[in-house]
Structure formats: structure tokens, C-alpha cells
Amino acid sequence: MKTITERPDVAIIVLTRNAGRLWPEWINALQNQSVRAGRYLVIDSMSADHTAELAAAAGMEVVRIHPDDFSHGGTRQMAAQLCPDAQLLVYLTQDAILHQVDSLETLLRHCDEDEHVAMAYGRHLPRAGADLLERHARGFTYPAVSSVRDRSCFKTMGYRAAFASDVYAVYRASALRSIGGFPQHIIVSEDSYVAARLLLAGWKTVYSAESTVEHSHQYSLLQVFRRYFDVGVFHASEQPLMQAVGAPDREAGAYVRSLIAYLYERKKWLLPLAALQTTVRLVGFRLGKRYQRLPLAICRLVSIQQAYWLHEANRPAAVLTEAVPVGLGMGFLPVPAMPLSEQKKIEKSVKILLQNVDKERLEY
After folding, report:
1. Quick one: 288 exposed, middle or buried, by C-beta within 10 A (0-12, 13-18, 19+)?
2. Cα dihedral sign for 142, 145, 150, 155?
3. If you average pLDDT over residues 5-20, what whole number do you get?
4. 217-242 in b/e burial notation, b at 16+ Cβ within 10 A?
5. pLDDT digits (tens, 9 = 90+) for 231-266
6. Is 119:172 a contact under the CB 8 Å cutoff?
7. How many angstroms separate the Cα of 284 from the Cα of each of 67, 233, 267?
8. Are 79 and 7 in contact (CB under 8 A)?
9. Residue 1: Cβ within 10 Å count
């Protein structure tokens, strides 16, 4: 008989929008955990399927928001504020399936055993059927060995020290409050932003390889380009923090070398696809880093995070008037200056153009 540990000090938070076919499995995995939290909170962005209804039927509290009000940092901060009595906040996404009955118990243990640990995140395992490129990505990013990081790790690891994933993570509420919580207006990578600030403030973070979820995706090249454009926007928008923790360039090189070796041993014929995917990532990332020189309409067309561009403070400072250097050794990506009337036409058509671009919905 399974022993259930009551944890009234813990709040489980999940952000949802049209969770789809994985949602019943997600709920079942949560209900089978060896830990029972004091609160289960779902922040739902007006799902058109049965996401909210199934959550409520499972006994979870559901708060509904408009999709235009969603942001990766702001919505998570709102959820934290809705759980003022919780000492530990566990964040999950709707497609991260808890893999073990003690996944949560194992993750929480890091905060229980060391009061200096501000957050811990678990290991992501590829789903059955994931292709080799995705399996390598999971294995490289989430290795089989756990690690503890502190401020000194920036000297040896650079940006990698700040990497974290709130797809599945626990945060100490007092530590989160000590740095001002999640940022309100951030396009993506709010998890690494928070981890970096916690480390710089003297806290520890933990990668827990023993606590696992099933979580992987198979993205098209267009989806890869759009996602890495947003990552580039993040790096451009948070330059002071990037300068403090180190650039990701060294990590990118290690990833490419690892991917080549991995595919060479298994399916060499995938190497050209891997090279193309890597090039698309780099182009998207470097274009995103230069978003301030792009017309707003182009940013909205390329970006996955549509709601981000609705806020005046997040918009590009100027309309592009010259070529944008992408920096791949292939010269320049020319984008001519665009009249205001043409920009408005593009903005009106953005919704139509984006309707069927992505095979998968935005990852909440």
C-alpha cells in the first residue's frame, strides 16, 4: 500500500491552454504521487477544450485568464501571489507528465534538506517515439547526474550555471520573494532569469536527475526558428544580466559537437538535417538579438509569444532602415525600410498567416 505524505506547505501550479489528449494522463500521474499538496492551482488561458472542466473535476482550483494577459513571467508571478501561505511552489506545464510516483517527493527533498536551496528542477525524459535529435537534446540538457550550483559556478560554467526549467521545478517562496519574484514582462526564459538572479543573490539551485517527467517535442524547422527568435529577444532584452553570468556561445559549441558524435554513432544520414536545424536555430537566435532594428509587424510575425508584443515597453525602438547582420559568414539579411501603411497591412494579416503555422500549441 502506497504511503501518502501530506504537504500543506506545498502548492502545485500548472499553466494551461487547450491541454488536449495528454491532460487526463497528466492528471492521473499527479493524483498517483506519494505527496499530497496543500493546494492545486490551474491558471487556464480560456481553453476551448475540456481542460478546465477536467481539472475542476479532479479537485483542482481553476483561475481563468484571457490569453492576451498571459506572459511566462507575469502569469507565474500571479500564481505565486495567489498562494501566499505556501512555502514551496511547484510549477509544471500541461505536457510534463510526472514519471515516477515519488517524482514530487524527490524534488521537494532538495529544499527540505538544505535551507539555502532556492529552487530545484527535474530531469526531462523523451517520450516514446521521440526522434534521435530530440532524444539527444533531452540527454544533453538533462543528464543522468544531479548537480548543485552556487554563485561561484558562473566562473566555470558561464550561462550554463543559470540554466533551469520551470516546466517542472520547485521554488522556495521566500527566496523567490527576496529577488522580487518572476519578471512581469519577459518573452521567454523566465526560469533561467530567475535562477541567475537567485544565484547572484547567494542562493543555491539544484538539478535533480532522480526526479523525472516525460517531456519532449518534435518541432518543425519553422517552429525551431520562431522559438529561437524569441530566445534571442530575451538575450537582447536582458543584456545586463547576460553580462553578469556569461554568454551562451561556449555551451552552443559543446552541444553541436555532442550532437555530431551522437548521430555519427547511430544514424549518420541525419547529420545534414542536424546541420540544417542548428543553422536555423542560430539564424533565429541572432535575428532575435537584433529585434530592435526590425519592424513590429515582423517581430509579431516571427515570434511565438504574440501577447508579449502587445505591451508598449516590449516593442522595437525603431523601424529597420538598413540590412540586419545575421553573422553566419553569409553576409547580410536585407530587410528594406517599410512605409507605415505597409506595416499596418502586415499587422492586419499576421493572425491569418499564423493560424496553421505550428503543429503544437504554445507551451504553457
Report:
1. buried
2. negative
3. 97
4. bebeeebbbbbbbbbbbbbbbbeebb
5. 999 999 998 888 888 766 566 778 888 888 989 889
6. yes
7. 25, 10, 26
8. no
9. 3
**Under 8 Å between Cβ of 10 and 35:** yes
The string of pLDDT tens digits covering residues 282-294 is: 999 999 999 999 9
Task: Give the global pTM.
Answer: 0.85
In contact, 122 and 212? CB cutoff 8 Å: yes
Half-sphere exposure of 42 (CA within 13 A, CB side): 26
Which cell goes with 282?
542560430
Sign of the dihedral defined by the CA atoms of residues 211, 169, 150, 253, in that order: positive
